[in-house]
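Researcher: Please predict.
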Amino acid sequence: SKSDIKNIQWITGNSFTAERGQQQIEEHISTWDVHRSWLHWSEFLREEELKYSKRYHYRVCWSIPTRRKPIPRATASVYFVIEISKIKPATFPVEVFFTLESSRLIHRPEQCQFREKWLKDIIENKITLMERL
């Protein structure tokens, strides 16, 4: 339900920087209900100039390293886009959306509860594919 969705207070367009965007993504990820065995790292990928907005692209790479396999066989990436409107007032919060690797479905943090199963599915599919090859 909508009340179960955890979200953060996103920065406004006028106080946005690429670094602050990455910090906010980390802050948002901390609200996700994922087991502590999952580790992740994030990176800023690029800035995209559009007619009515500017988009900042980020990647968050997830894996579950173990004592036996400190280098995981596969990882799962979540791609974030933070969009700053050139039309809306700069005092409005940035727009944020994310997609999962191998999926076109666009998720908005305020409208969807992240599922750990999504990460597991990506990794399982990659391992299955590697075993077939």
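Model: The mean pLDDT is 93.
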